[in-house]
Amino acid sequence: MKNKIGLDRVGETLLLMGNEAIARGALEAGVSFCSSYPGNPSSEIMETLASVARDLNIYAEWSVNEKVALEAATAASFAGLRAMVSMKQNGINVVSDFLVNLSLSGIKGGIVLVTCDDPGGISSTNEEDARFIAQVADIPLLEPAHPQDALDMTRWAFDLSETIGSVCVLRSISRISHTRGSVTLGSLSRKKRTAHFDTSISLHAFPVTEKHKILHQKLAKARELFETSSFNSYEGPPDDIDLLIIACGTGFLYAREALELLDLTGRVGLLKIGTTWPLPEEWLENHLSRCERILFVEDVDPFLERNIKAFFAQISPKLGVRTFYGKGSGHIPPFGELNPDILVYALARILDIDYKPEDRDYVNKAEALVSELVPPREFGFCPGCPHRASFWSIKNALKWDDRDGFVSGDIGCYTMGIWPTGFNQVKSVHAMGSGVGMASGYGKLYTYGFNQPVISVVGDSTFFHAGLPPLINAIYNQANFLLIILDNGATAMTGFQPHPGTGVNAIGDRVQSLDIASICRALGVSVEVADPYEIKDTANTIYRLLQERTGVRVLIMKRKCALVQKREEGFPYRVRVDEERCVGDSCGCNRFCTRVFRCPGLIWDQEKKKTRIDEVICVGCGVCTEICPEGAIVREKDNHE
After folding, report:
1. Rounded distance, CA 456 to CA 92, Å?
2. What average pLDDT does range 544-548 have in this prediction?
3. What share of the chain is helix, strand, coil (3-state, %, to 5)?
C-alpha cells in the first residue's frame, strides 16, 4: 500500500497532518462513501482517502460542487452505508439548502460533514466561521484541538451520527488541517456493509412540525452524550481560581502556551470543549460555578462565547454574577487568527500583570533591517501561467475598445487578476459563479444608459461548479456580455484535482470528458476557442467580440496550467534576452517587461542594467517574446529535452 494512512497497525504512531488524521478517523470508523469539492484548507482529506480507495474498497469522488457531494453521500447513507463529505467554509453556504432539509428527514448510515474554516483568509476570499450551520440545521458540532483529536473525533462522530440519526459536523481550521502532529492509530473497521434502500419506508421532511420536534429530541440525546465526553476536559488548580478560560479548537493549545509563558498555571483554570453544540450544560454549570471571571478563546466568531452567555442567563439566579471576557469585551479581536501573543496580552490586562514585551526599539530596527534585506513578495501568477497572457489580451482589448469596460471576476487562480500580476483587470470577486451572475445583471442595464462593455471570467472547474446556472439565466434573459472561460485543464488553485472536463476521476480512472465548448453551444450561444499564448490574435478576438454587443458570447481560453504542462509534456522553447537590443530603463514604460508584464521568469540585472531570463524558473512558454517593444526577448527551439 502506497499510503501508510491505510495500514492496519493498531498503536503505531505516525506524523500526520490534521486533514490526514481526519481521513484516518473516517477509515477507522468504516466509511464507505467519500465525496468532496476541492478547496483549501480541506483538499487533503479527499486526496488522502482517494489514495487508498482501491486498496480498502471505499468509494471516493470529487463532486461537481459541495451540494451535490452531500446529496450523493446522503444516497449512500439512505442505503445504510457510512459517508463523509468534506469542504472548506465557503462550501457550507452551497450545501446549506439541502442540509437544513436533510436534518429534518434524518439519516440511516452515519454522515459526517467536515468543514475546514480559514481564519485570516489564508487561502480564501473570507474568514467565515461556518459553525453557524450547526445551529441553523439543529445538528451536533465537534471541534478538534490537534491532529489526535481530529482522528478520534472523526471516528466517534460516525457513531454519534448513527446513534441520534442525524448528520454530525466536524469543524477544523487551517492551523489544525495543515499542522502535523504525532497520532496514534486505532484499528481499521472490519464491519462489512451492504448497500440496500428500504422501500418500505419514506425518507422525507414531512410533516415539518413533527420532524422538527424529533430533531430537537435528537439534539437533546447528543447533549446527554456530550455531558460525559472525553473530548471535554479541565486542567488547572482544583480551587481558588483567579480566572477560568473556556477554549475550543486551537484556542486550547494557544491558551495553554500563554499560561505557561506568564507562569499562571497555578492561578488560572483551562476548560477545553470539543463538543461545542449543543452545549454540555450540566458539565458547564459545574465549572462555571468555580470562578467569577471567565475568558473565552476561539476562532473566529464568538460562537461559543455567545452560546455560553445565553446559557448562563438561565442559571445566573443560582450562580450569581459573572464577568465575561472575550470578543465581546474587546480583549480578543473579533477577526483574524488567534495566536499565543493575543492571549498573553489579554491575560495580562485581565489579571493586572505587568507584562513587558520585547523592546520596541529592537523590534523596529529588526523590521527595518528585514524590509531592507528581504525583497517584497507579492501575489503573482506562476511563470508561464496562461492566465497572465489572458489578462494581458483582455487589458489590451478593453483599452482599444475605449468605453471604460471592466472584468467581473470569480474564484480561482485567476482571482489574482485583481492585483498587478493580472494588470488589475478584475474589479470584483465574490462567490463561485458570481462573476457570471453579476455580468448577467450588468448586461441588462442598457435601458438605463449603461454602455460599458462587460467581460466575465470563470475557470473550467468553477464553470461546472456554479457557472452554468448564471450562464443559462443570462441566455434566457438575453443579457449582453462576453463570457471568457479560462480553461487550464485542472482545479489548479487547490492542487490540480480533476473535474468533469479533465477525463479523470478522483482515483485516477479514465472517464468521459465533458467538453465545455459543446455544452455552451448546446445552450445556443456563439462559442470561439483561443490559445491565450497567442496574445495578439487573442486580443483581436476579444476586441471583435466586444463590438458585437448582442447577447452572450463565449470565448474559451484553452491552455493547460503551466505546472501541469511542464510536468506532462514540457514547453517547446528556450528563451533568452539579446542584450544588444535590450534598452533597459529606456524601454517603453520604464523596463516594460519586468515592471509591467511581471512574469517571474523575467528579472532585472542591476549591474548590466538589462533584463535577463531566470533560467531556473522560466518554463519556456515564449509569451514574453511578443510583448518586448524592441524585440530583445527571443525564443529558440528547445532541443534540451
Report:
1. 25
2. 95
3. 40, 20, 40
Rounded percentage of the chain residues whose pLDDT exceeds 70: 99
pTM for the model stands at: 0.93
Burial 47-84 (b: 16+ CB within 10 A, else e): bbbbbbbeebebbbbbbbbbbbbbbbbbebbbbebbbb
**Helical (H) or strand (E) element with 151:** helix 147-164
Which residue intervals of the chain bear CATH 3.40.50.970? 4-226, 386-568
Q: What cell was used for 29?
A: 470508523
User: To the nearest whole number, what is the mean pLDDT of the chain?
Assistant: 93
Write down the CATH number for the domain with range 386-568.
3.40.50.970
Could you identify the residue written with the cell 494557544? Answer: 254
Q: What is the DSSP string of 208-235?
A: HHHHHHHHHHHHHHHHHHHTT-TT-EEE
Q: Which three cell numbers stand for residue 267?
A: 492561578
- pLDDT tens per residue across span 586-629: 887 778 898 899 899 999 998 899 999 998 999 999 999 999 98
Residue 297 C-beta-side C-alpha neighbours within 13 Å: 34
pLDDT of residue 209: 92
What CA–CA distance (Å, rounded) separates 638 from 620?
8
d(CA 311, CA 324) in angstroms, rounded, equals 13
Cis peptide before 41 (omega within 30 of 0): yes
CATH code reported for the domain at 573-637: 3.30.70.20
Q: Domain 233-350's class? A: alpha beta
Q: For residue 584, is pLDDT > 90? A: no
CA-closest candidate to residue 104, choices 212, 241, 202: 212
Adjacency order of strands within the sheet including 268-272? 233-235, 268-272, 243-247, 293-297, 323-325
